Amino acid sequence: MNNETAKVERVIGFDSHPDTFTAAIVQGPTPAAAVVQKVFNKVPLDTLESWALKHTNPEDIFVLEASGNSFNVVRVLHQAKRKALVLESCHIGKLKEAHANNDKISAVRIGKAYLAGTAKEVWVPDWKTQLRRDVYHQHRKEGQRVTQLRNRIRSYLSDNGVRLAKGDKLTDPKTVEKIEAARPWWKLQWKIIEHDFAELRHADEQRKKWRGLIAEEVLNDPVLLSLVRLCGIREVIAFALGALVGDINRFANPKKLVAYIGLNPAFDDSGNTDWSGGIGGHGRKDLRCLLIEAAQAIMHSWNNPLARWGRKLMARKGSPKLAIAAVARKLTVAVWYLMMGRWTPLEEIDPLLSAKVGKIITAVGTAGLKQLGKARKQLREEACQALTTGREYVLDPDKKFTPRLVPASEPVVAPA
After folding, report:
1. Taking Cα atoms as reference points, which of 215, 233, 222 lies closest to residue 332?
2. pLDDT exceeds cutoff 50 at 413
3. 386-404: buried (b, 16+ CB within 10 Å) or exposed (e) per residue?
4. Looking at the chain, which terminus has fewer C-beta neighbours within 10 angstroms, N or C?
């Protein structure tokens, strides 16, 4: 196509804040040739849809930096029939001017970063995936809160010369009685202990509530339920995969999912030096940690083929961390095949999988079962039936499932 007749798209660089936004209309084929046509500064965010309809065209492309409300901004623009993309904040942040910066400069910089073609695009999750992420983060926060409170109580007791035995559970009422009898407490000291224990019980109840909702969602979703077939994966990791991976079709092959999670090793072979590092520093750390935990559980399973493979690798390489990372990589490949539906069907539920289903139903809790209006036995039968006949698994006849280690590669999209 002739450059003179080629249509140059307008890019709207968008810098969003909780209450206002700044937009720069940039037009040009490259950052150097781009012309800033107009800048709208500190426009109220609640007028975004009407502003977009008045000042922009359906052919324009909005680009914004990933931030707290960027996904909501994209959804509002989609309602106005406008195309919007979210760019990775890490890349945009490196382009910031050291000597001067404001919303106008940021909006222009974001627009030109898109024209440069080097900024990675962040996938905008659909509503179902977004809700799952919100639930997962709530469960994770409550888990962290429980850990903080346990550490705080143990530290305070230790400061006052009281050491609990390894098997003493802080949520057990008998432990509180044991602490009270351990030494004479001042009234204010005991008030502090009672307050911390009350907070711990509340946080633990909330954590169990969110875990029950997660277990219920896994049992009701055939794709998530199918993931518990894999050794090392139960309701929390299965739900996290559904929430953080989202649409599996955006990953063309298992290597893309491995790179997205960050289980492919880093390397640098420029110049005369060769360097290959670990798996940290890129990808989704939260999901990578969960799969590493799953791999550690697999390594303790003596009858699992993947565990035997991991132990052989550990004996050959002499590195437990390397073997666990390799097992987690293979597990990720298996997750991709399962979520894509390319798996052989289950003919029967073995005792280990049956026990795992029972633990998931236990996590739902009595209140959850009552709300569902189902008995434990009925829910187990439905889950087992879903595992065997709930989905159609289609195997590619030309490609045998043989997970292997993959080389480092760039992800299709940046972590969202």
Report:
1. 233
2. no
3. bbeebbeeeeeeeeeeebe
4. N
